[in-house]
Specification:
Layout: H1 2-5, E1 9-16, E2 19-30, E3 33-38, H2 43-50, E4 55-66, E5 71-83, H3 87-96, E6 107-122, E7 125-126
Antiparallel strand pairs: 1-2, 1-4, 2-3, 3-6, 4-5, 5-6, 6-7
Amino acid sequence: MRLLASVGYGRVVFTQDALPAIRPVNHLVDAGQVILRTRVTAPFSAAVRSGANSAVVVAYEADDLDPKRRTGWSVVVTGLATTISDPDRVARYEQLLQPWVNMTMDTVIAIDPEIVTGIRIVNGTGC
């Protein structure tokens, strides 16, 4: 989680129309959760809302790779994604997490990690 918190973007993997879908998004790590902002009309938001009890299993991947030196790391978090509805938390994350795209991001989603895996690549070998 420390490595994940050291970068500001990654890729969320979710199910869309019974198939895997991947979207690049920026994130922050707060209180052990991965926090994302999106649009209520986005496929990712719809997938989270369609889950049992408004939660759905997703994966989130981020990395920091240096292709010249062939070093880096990748972290994958798998867990339940839920929409944050508490107005104070929403307002806080709206201040802390600015979208990279010029669109209104009116939904905040938290991923509660259940499984955290990763790989560190040192000197061109996976460790």
